[in-house]
Every structure is written in C-alpha cells, then in structure tokens.
C-alpha cells in the first residue's frame, strides 16, 4: 500500500489520506478485513502528526469504510461498498420524501435525472 501526502497541496493532509484509502478500498487493493497500520506507525511513515492520521481514521470510520476494534486495530469494513450503501440510503430517503409530496414515479425520475445533469427541472 503506497500512501503519500503532498505538503504543497491546498487539500488538508487528512483529506488526502482519506481519499487515497477510499480509492484503495474501491479498487479492491485493500480488501475487507485488511488491517490498517496503527495511527502512530502511519504518522511516522508519512512524517505527519498522529492527530492528522487519527482524524483520517475517524473520517473513514464515519464513512463506513473502516472499523476500529479497540486495541486490536483498524480494519477495512465488512459492511460492503460504503459509497453504494450511502447512495442506497439517499435514494430511499428521496423516495420516501417524494411519496409524501405526492409526486409520481416518472416525475421523480425526471427530477433526479435533471439534478444529476446539473439542469433545472422542467
């Protein structure tokens, strides 16, 4: 696993790491159950403050990408693809709201399609 942080980037180091971990998991380079380096070890390897790496891990855990098992360490989550899971949750929330508003399926799909294209709904 090759991680790096660009100190000249306008993107904060914790976010650079978060995105790299997310991409490694999405590509399958980090598989379910894979153990991650300890916060201290990764911080030392990258020349970062331990709090920076700890924040990365907290963000990844919040996103459902990793899970921390106390003193046993942090591991790639076994809860499936977090992006897909979050998209399913968003879709379910949207569908529930659309039903409450009394909007039909075809109109709802048209609204989503327009939104994904960045266009105003007609």
From TrEMBL:
Pfam families: GntR (PF00392). This is GntR family transcriptional regulator. Residues 71-91 are annotated as: Disordered. The keyword Cytoplasm does not apply. Residues 11-79 form the HTH gntR-type domain. InterPro entries: Tscrpt_reg_HTH_GntR, WH-like_DNA-bd_sf, WH_DNA-bd_sf. The lineage of its organism: Bacteria, Bacillati, Actinomycetota, Actinomycetes, Micrococcales. Signal peptide: none annotated. It comes from the Bacteria.
């Amino acid at each position: 696993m090759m991680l790096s942080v660009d100190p000249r980037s306008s993107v904060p180091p914790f976010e650079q790491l978060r995105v790299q971990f997310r991409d490694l998991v999405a590509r399958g380079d980090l598989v379910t159950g894979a153990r991650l380096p300890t916060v201290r070890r990764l911080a030392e390897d990258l020349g970062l403050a331990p709090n920076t790496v700890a924040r990365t891990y907290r963000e990844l855990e919040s996103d459902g990408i990793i899970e921390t098992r106390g003193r046993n360490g942090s591991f790639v989550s076994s809860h499936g693809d977090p992006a897909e899971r979050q998209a399913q949750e968003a879709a379910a929330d949207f569908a529930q709201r659309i039903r409450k508003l009394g909007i039909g399926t075809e109109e709802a799909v048209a609204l989503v399609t327009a939104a994904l294209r960045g266009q105003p709904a007609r």
